[in-house]
Specification:
The structure holds 2 protein chains of 2 kinds. Chain A is an alpha+beta fold. Chain A is 25% helix and 16% strand. Classes of the chains: A alpha+beta, B alpha/beta. Chains A and B meet through α1 and α2 of A and α19 and α21 of B.
């Protein structure tokens, strides 16, 4: 029942290739094909690791970075995946804990992994470096003195709390996001006034 | 098969003389031919062979339930007793096919019932099986003997209760990896006290509790029981009682033992297991305390099949200790926590190994504990290896080339690097040469899955060398239409091609439209094919169903031919457009 296969010896099928779009858009079409490869990469870190394997054409419109977890990958049956989920990988045991950090007046937010830091001093230092500002000195009575800024965080109840009041572990388990407040708002939180 | 072909060709020449052979003689000869493929070959020799073969065939295999209607099957094979049906495309296993896509078995059962087919065996894979279907099945066929459901869904333990209660002749109930809603029923109790014919019972995939007393009594009154696979709910002491009742078991699947047993239960279990001299296949161990494992050491020397792929609780040392006792192993399914070192133990112990599957123990984090070293070790220690499924952290061309040299007998070769576009871990080159070596060396290769950084070159090799290839799975590979074209041009025996996230477009899709009628199906998702391309194909090939699935319900999608298609599944069919397709599936 084998049909006769049309065998193109040179495989140059451009002549028969379906062209989509208006005449004169050939250049875009070719680039779309060659940058489609980039499109399909599932994991951000693998994007540029193939050193010199082949020349990648620089597409003018690079597609957005693909999401880190691809649907249906790795290819194992849901049944099997669900069975293996029994080993309790709870949030507490997971190795990363990313939270958003916003700074009043900054054009965009950042993200940091709280698990990287051993305690408040490291965290505050990192924030200072990231946003190029200085946090004052912390005291329980007066908050962060000597600076326009106050580091705050949103806790599980949705309240904005001053960073530093509770033990580090407790902070880690209740912090949902960080915000570096500036100016009068900061002073309202920071001072005992 | 060789002798069959010469048999056929002899009679092809002698066709005229065939008319003097009574039909009964031919039928008797055909009785010895059992495989579907061989019988299909027989039926194509001449009209009278077609007639005789069709009227006598009892066992039918339908690879795609939408390729033909049940009525047509019944009409052609009036002696039908046993049927195997497959429903959803393979990529449905990985959640790539939307949930309501189809694959319902009810119409088939209903048609069989209506036409009074003497159905005895039903084997389903990736189909939707409702409780109603099971209920109808159980009441419609007095001689029904065997139900095997693999990767199916849609039923509950209520459906199983109907089967248990009504299928008085039931010998086999085998549930493999199904999603079953467990109503914690009494379904086991529905087997009548007079039901003594059970040969095989596998309910490992059920999540709920069962009545242990009922189970023990069922086993006690089933002297022919040879295969028993239990679920999580069956504890140690029940297992021990069951084994004492069934020392003739050939296939055993144990449940879960989270607690270390006290020494008395343990000793009893060891005694019971020692009596089971016939056990050749062992599986389960869903949740096991490692100290329980040595209880099974006495049956290890006889084992030919071992499945520990659902046992993340068994780590390194205990695992290798167990495997060292399994010198006769032919089939091994394990988790990658065995590590490369553990695979070296397998390689030095299991010289008869034919099939190996190494699954990832932690798919979410994406780190596999095995590398190319484990694969190379296996290939050099196990020369009889012909089937492999290997999830690993990394691969190299050098390793694949070595594997190809060591094991030229591969029939199935499936490699999955957890990072799907990872290059050669040492040279950073694409893995084209490695896979090229595999297809070049393994002339009998029928199934291949590839991952890693791959260019069009690997497909050139596949098209050139993989002459026997029937099924190919491609993900995140290739550079251009050429890749897919090489495959379609070169692999004459290709039946199933499934592709995801690869830059193949209309040029490849439309290159040789006739080819798809010689294949069972083609799946393409997140590729470059457009609606216009699919429409063109559908128009040219009326005997293909070209199904498009677009999950972003844009009504103007219908009018934009340049739009890329999310998911396309096409298959040859004699049944026309199917009538049970949901809204998001559009048959062109």
């Amino acid at each position: 029942m084998e049909g006769v296969v049309a065998y193109e010896n040179d495989l140059n099928l451009k002549a028969t290739e379906l062209r989509l779009g208006l005449p004169g858009t050939e250049r875009n079409q070719e680039q779309a094909v060659s940058c489609a490869r980039n499109n399909k990469r599932p994991l951000p870190e693998t994007g540029d690791q193939n050193g010199g394997a082949k020349a990648k054409s620089d597409a003018p419109n690079t597609p957005p970075a693909p999401k880190a977890h691809t649907v249906g990958w790795p290819p194992i049956r849901s049944y099997r995946k669900n069975s293996l989920q029994q080993p309790k990988q709870t949030a507490a045991e997971s190795s990363v804990m990313y939270v958003k950090v916003s700074m009043d007046g900054a054009p965009y937010l950042r993200k940091i992994d709280l698990k990287v830091y051993q305690g408040y001093p490291e965290l505050l230092k990192a924030l200072e470096n990231m946003f190029k500002f200085t946090i004052g000195e912390y005291s329980e009575r007066e908050g962060y003195k000597g600076s326009e800024y106050a580091p705050t965080y949103e806790d599980k109840d949705g309240d904005w709390m001053l960073v530093g009041d509770v033990p580090w572990e407790m902070f880690m388990s209740s912090c949902k996001r960080l915000r570096i407040m500036k100016g009068s708002e900061a002073r309202g939180l920071g001072c005992g006034v | 098969m060789v002798s069959l072909c010469s048999f056929i060709s002899y009679y092809w020449e002698e066709e005229k003389r065939m008319n003097y052979f009574p039909d009964e003689v031919l039928e008797h000869v055909f009785d010895f031919v059992t495989s579907s493929r061989d019988r299909n070959a027989l039926s194509q020799v001449c009209k009278s062979w077609y007639r005789i073969e069709s009227s006598s065939r009892q066992k039918v295999f339908i690879g795609n339930c939408y390729a033909i209607s049940p009525e047509r099957v019944i009409e052609r094979f009036p002696a039908l007793k046993s049927i195997a049906l497959k429903g959803k495309p393979h990529f449905a296993d990985f959640n790539l096919v939307p949930h309501e896509w189809g694959g319902f078995v009810y119409p088939w059962i209903e048609a069989f019932a209506r036409n009074r087919v003497g159905l005895e065996e039903l084997r389903l894979k990736r189909m939707v099986v409702s409780d109603d279907s099971l209920e109808l099945l159980s009441r419609s066929f007095a001689n029904f003997k065997s139900l095997v459901l693999v990767s199916c869904e849609g039923f509950t333990t209520d459906g199983l209760a109907a089967i248990a209660a009504n299928c008085r002749c039931l010998r086999e109930l085998d549930l493999q990896e199904n999603e079953v809603e467990d109503h914690r029923g009494h379904w086991l109790s529905c087997f009548h006290d007079s039901h003594t014919s059970l040969v095989s019972l596998n309910f490992a995939c059920l999540k709920g509790d069962i009545n242990l007393g009922v189970l023990e009594r069922l086993v006690a009154r089933s002297p022919n029981l040879r295969s028993l696979r239990l679920n999580r709910a069956v504890p140690f002491d029940t297992l021990q009682k069951i084994l004492m009742q069934s020392p003739n078991l050939v296939d055993l699947g144990v449940g879960s033992y989270v607690h270390d047993p006290d020494s008395e239960t343990y000793d009893k279990l060891v005694t019971a297991i020692e009596k089971c001299k016939s056990v050749r296949s062992l599986s389960g161990f869903l949740d096991v305390a490692p100290h329980c494992l040595p209880a099974f050491h006495s049956i290890c020397p006889n084992l030919t099949s071992l499945n520990l792929s659902y046992a993340p609780g068994i780590q390194g040392g205990e695992l290798t200790k167990l495997i060292r006792h399994c010198r006769k192993l032919q089939r091994l399914w394990i988790l990658d926590c065995i590590g490369d070192k553990g695979l070296e133990v397998v390689a030095s112990t299991c010289k008869d190994l034919q099939e190996l599957r190494v699954f990832p123990s932690d798919p979410y984090i994406g780190h596999a504990a095995v590398t190319e070293e484990g694969l190379v070790a296996i290939s050099s220690g196990c020369p009889k290896l012909h089937s492999i499924l290997y999830f690993c952290q990394q691969m190299t061309n050098a390793a694949l080339i070595t594997v190809a040299k060591n094991c030229p007998n591969f029939i199935r070769f499936r490699l999955c690097i957890l990072d799907p576009t990872k290059p050669d871990a040492v040279t950073q080159q694409p893995l084209d040469e490695g896979f090229g070596a595999i297809v070049h060396s393994c002339r009998g290769l029928r199934r291949l899955s590839l991952t890693g950084l791959l260019t069009d070159q690997v497909f050139l090799y596949i098209g050139m060398y993989a002459e026997q290839l029937e099924m190919l799975s491609i993900a995140f590979a290739g550079d251009s239409d050429k890749g897919m074209q090489y495959v379609l041009n070169g692999c004459k025996r290709l039946r199933k091609l499934e592709i995801r996230d690869s830059p193949f477009g209309n040029g490849a899709l439309l290159m040789d439209v006739g080819k798809y009628e010689a294949m069972r199906s083609l799946w393409m998702s997140s590729c470059e094919v457009t609606l216009g391309g699919c429409k063109t194909l559908a128009k040219k090939m009326p005997r293909l169903n070209v199904e498009i699935m677009n999950e972003n319900e844009q009504t103007d999608f219908i009018f934009d031919d340049a739009q890329k298609v999310d998911k396309m599944y096409l298959y040859r069919t004699l049944a026309g457009q199917r009538k049970d397709a949901p809204d998001f599936v559009w048959t062109l």
